[in-house]
Amino acid sequence: MSKIVSISSDKIFIKKENIIPFLKNKNKSLPTKYLYDEIGSKLFEEICATKEYYLTRTEKEILDKNASDIIKTSKAQELFELGSGSSKKTKPLIFEALNENDLLTYFSFDISTKALKMSYNELKKISKKLNIKLLKGDFNNDLNKLSYSKKNRLFLFLGSTIGNFNNNLAEKFLKNISSIMKENDSFLLGVDKIKDKKIIHSAYNDKEGITMKFNKNILNVVNKEYSLNFNEDNFLHNAQYNSKKSQIEMYLESTTNQSITLPNNENVKITVGEKILTEISRKFSDNTLNILFNKASLSLVKSYTDNKKYFSLYLLKSKKYF
Predict the structure, then answer these.
(1) pTM given for the model
(2) Are 249 and 298 part of one and the same domain?
(3) Residue 259's domain spans which residues?
(4) Which of 61, 213, 267, 317 has a 20 to 30 A CA-CA distance from 300?
(5) Residue pLDDT, tens place only, 216-252
């Protein structure tokens, strides 16, 4: 197996006091990144296969249909996927890039070791022309540590992961991408669009209860990371669509009065019905995206969507070269 190279800042994982303000805040929350440990990454793959979760299959349809045009338009000689997960849906782009290049390097970049292993196992038998690089890191903090390349690099940020960021974080992330892009680099962004709220709500409340398991697993992760005493049986999965903000808000709702001991030995009381936010998933309009792209100095080259206009892919360049 290809070696996993960590470029992550140690402080992100070592500073245990970082969890304290999240839980002491009036509106309690947990860092979304802790949803994606090894168990969480596997559960998310299962979520993507559920009937209700339209995002993955719709994005895959768009990629299958437009992979050739994306690779030819971007002239990609390397693929660099941020938050790669298992890399299953990226395969059409890899196949097309292999057709256009004698050798191809694919960088799988993820915070989860399990996801990186899944990515390697998914891609390792594709071709001897494919060089797979596994990088462990946090795309919110480690982009400035990426190695320079002379080749045309196509950055990929799929799955509408951008929707997990509030507006300020989304703008900061896109600015970081724009700043590291060279003249011949491109950026392919997958985005979930605003649609009937019933369709959106169902996607995060699957009948099999896999999203519930995924959501509750974050408690086991922070328990291990910060020596906390959460009991997942004391919480309900609660995912609701906020129409005003055009976003799903995923919570863990307390079913009892309970006390959580923090790393500084301070106790935080959680009352019946109190909610802990674990993730947001924003849904975008073209207008919102255009504003974000302009602020991040990104220029739109092409966009791709499905027949129902549920989901879109945007091929972008840095404005400083475009």
Answers:
(1) 0.91
(2) no
(3) 18-51+208-282
(4) 61
(5) 999 999 999 999 999 999 999 999 999 999 999 999 9
